[in-house]
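Work Package 3 (structural annotation) set out to generate three-dimensional models for the target panel prioritized at the project kickoff. During this period the team completed the workflow that converts sequence records into discrete structure tokens, so that structures can be stored uniformly alongside our sequence database. As a representative example, we reproduce one entry of 187 residues exactly as it appears in the project archive.
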Amino acid sequence: SDLVTNLVDTFGAQANWEFDVWGRIRRNIQSADATFLSTIASYDNVLVSLTADVAAGYVSLRTLEAQLEILKKNVEVQKQALDLAQIQFKGGTTTELDVYQASTILTSTEAQVPDIEAQIQVARNTLCALVGVTPGSLDKLLDQGKGIPVSPAKVAVGIPGELLRRRPDVRQAELIAASQSALIGVE
């Protein structure tokens, strides 16, 4: 007893003991636990959103690359069409209007190439930002793969009720409700 008194005097410590007759402390602990778990569910929800954004950005990048490839093939075909129109005009089998139209179509198609290339660069930089690396850091990795990804033919989802309970946003809402419910017995 004297030892405890000396320690309290020495360290300035003060101890408060309270009996939890009505369960107030227990309910506070339950609320804090539920709040903590809802924070974890919120983090999981952010990870799901980030993963979805990265996947969408990757598919967008590959789609733009496919568009650029098709556009470049169209440019080559349209150059051949222009050459053919010029030969036919020189041979007298067509009018100058055909040459002009072929030239206009080729110019219009060629003008789209820089826009698609800029969109590809923006998509690459967006992926870098989502992953948290500097622009250009993923270029070597992104240059290895080609083609638009194809989703699997079948996706196992399970029972709809179980699927809903696995969603982090639903789990977070449940835990927030549990935390608020636990606080009812505190005050």
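The chain has a mean pLDDT of 83.
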